[in-house]
Specification:
Strand order of the largest sheet: 4-5-1-6
Strand content: 5-15%
Number of domains: 3
Helix content: 55-70%
Radius of gyration: 66 Å
Distance between the termini: 49 Å
Shape: rod-shaped
Number of helices: 13
Length: 471
């Protein structure tokens, strides 16, 4: 019976069995390295051989000076507008706002539509804010220098157009708000004006100047009354003293002049004086019963009765003591004093009447001032309300006009510092950079494979040094 195990010949060496996949370890590393190298350099080649891209650059600058506007309307009111520097408010930088507007879909789409290209083909611009300055740098890419510059120019136009729209919208909204308030101010002005007109139509007191003139007129009347009183007292004293010196009253002197001026009384007086003179002569010659004396006495009595009767008709008195005054008044000197007495007496009487009239006028003015005091206060309040309403209304109207000049309040002035450039060389592909990147990638791949190759040995060294044994 044959044994189950055949003997192994001596001339055959023992060979360990290997599976088909059990290849050398270094072959796998070579395969992985070559694959990675192929991918890296394929990407480098694709980048280097890609279509060139050009970048057109331009810059904006924002002036930082504020604007102040003030309109002063004399006796009416004033309106002012003030816009501080756009960089004066902490935490708000208009450059950031402008950056967001530049990259907004609306601005980019408008620029793309102006060039008749798609939104995706236009691409987003690159915006960079230069620190510590008011400059905004912008760049646009294109397949050619002309295309890149055209995109930049279209973006500038679209940006400026959008800024103008925002400014116009802000001004319209601000003006609309002022106009709504203006309608309220207009109503207040109309109400104040109507109240003032009603007061002037229903009152005799229509202006503050009227009250001032009435007060000044009252003061003048009082001054005139004081002067008239002084003049009257002086003249009255003179008349009184002259009357005492002459021994007559002004009334007696006036009666004497009145009788002397009468022709009939003068004729009777002449006859009386002749009869008196003849009687004196006859009595010196004859006795009282002489016919001539009796005749002259009858004539004297008749003329005396006639003078009394005429005196009673003219002056209402028949006191013949006034005949003495008539004789005295015939003297030039005494007659002059009589005339002076009568003239000054008349002046004193006139001044007294004037004082009485002035007193009545003063009382009337005082009553008017008392009555006008309340009306003056009411008129002053109405005029003040009207002036305030007019000033507020005028200021609001002026503010509408001045607000139109402050167009850079929320959106400051922006200027093109550097116009869109025409690039002379492409920004990509950058061949030197791509090759350097490929070499660096290859070196990193080799370094990684080397670490994988030596990983077991390195791990054993680390474990042995740490006391954990070996793999």
């Amino acid at each position: 019976m044959m044994s189950d195990h055949m003997p192994i010949p001596d001339d055959h060496a023992l060979v360990r069995y290997r599976r088909p996949l059990d290849k050398p370890r270094w072959a796998r590393y070579i395969f992985v390295g070559l694959a990675v190298f192929f991918v890296i350099w394929a990407m480098v080649a694709a980048y280097v051989l890609s279509s060139p891209t050009y970048s057109s650059k331009f810059s904006f600058v924002l002036p930082g000076k504020g604007v102040n506007t003030k309109v002063n309307l004399q006796s009416i009111g004033e309106a002012s507008t003030s816009s501080s520097s756009p960089f004066g408010t902490r935490g708000i930088n208009p450059r950031v706002n402008y950056k967001e507007i530049l990259v907004s879909d609306l601005v980019v789409r408008r620029a793309a539509d102006s060039l008749d290209i798609g939104f995706a083909d236009f691409g987003k611009p690159t915006v960079k804010l230069v620190d510590e300055t008011a400059i905004i740098n912008v760049a646009n890419k294109g397949g050619s220098p002309e295309s890149a510059r055209a995109k930049s120019e279209a973006l500038v136009e679209a940006f400026n157009s959008r800024i103008e729209e925002l400014r116009t919208d802000e001004m319209d909204r601000r003006e609309e708000g002022i106009r709504r308030a203006l309608s309220v101010y207009q109503q207040r002005l109309d109400d104040a004006q109507n109240a003032l007109l009603d007061h002037k139509q229903n009152s005799q007191y229509v202006s503050a100047r009227q009250y001032e003139e009435l007060t000044m007129r009252l003061e003048r009347l009082k001054e005139e009354q004081v002067r008239a009183s002084g003049d009257r007292d002086n003249i009255s004293g003179y008349v009184q003293q002259l009357s005492m010196n002459l021994g007559i009253t002004p009334r007696m002197a006036a009666n004497a002049f009145m009788l002397q001026a009468d022709a009939q009384f003068s004729l009777n007086l002449k006859d009386y004086q002749e009869a008196s003179a003849n009687l004196a002569v006859y009595r010196s010659k004859w006795g009282g019963a002489h016919p001539a004396i009796v005749k002259e006495e009858s004539k004297q009595d008749a003329t005396l009765d006639a003078m009394r009767k005429r005196s009673l008709e003219l002056i209402g008195e028949q006191d013949l003591n006034i005949l003495r005054l008539i004789n005295i008044s015939s003297s030039n000197e005494r007659g002059t004093l009589f005339q002076d007495l009568l003239v000054n007496f008349a002046k004193a009487k006139g001044l007294n009447d004037k004082i009485t009239q002035l007193g009545g006028a003063i009382d009337l003015h005082v009553d008017n001032l008392k009555r006008y005091a309340h009306e003056a206060a009411e008129l002053e309040n109405l005029e003040r309300d009207y002036e305030i309403a007019e000033a507020v209304y005028t200021s609001a109207v002026t503010q509408i006009d001045t607000s139109k000049t402050d167009v850079f309040a929320s959106y400051p002035l922006v200027q093109v510092l550097a116009a869109p450039s025409l690039p002379t060389k492409p920004v990509s592909p950058n061949k030197p950079l791509a090759i350097i990147g490929g070499f660096l990638g290859s070196m990193m791949t080799m370094f990684g494979l080397f670490l994988l190759w030596k990983r077991k040995q390195l791990l054993q060294q680390i474990l042995s040094k740490s006391g954990f044994g070996t793999l």
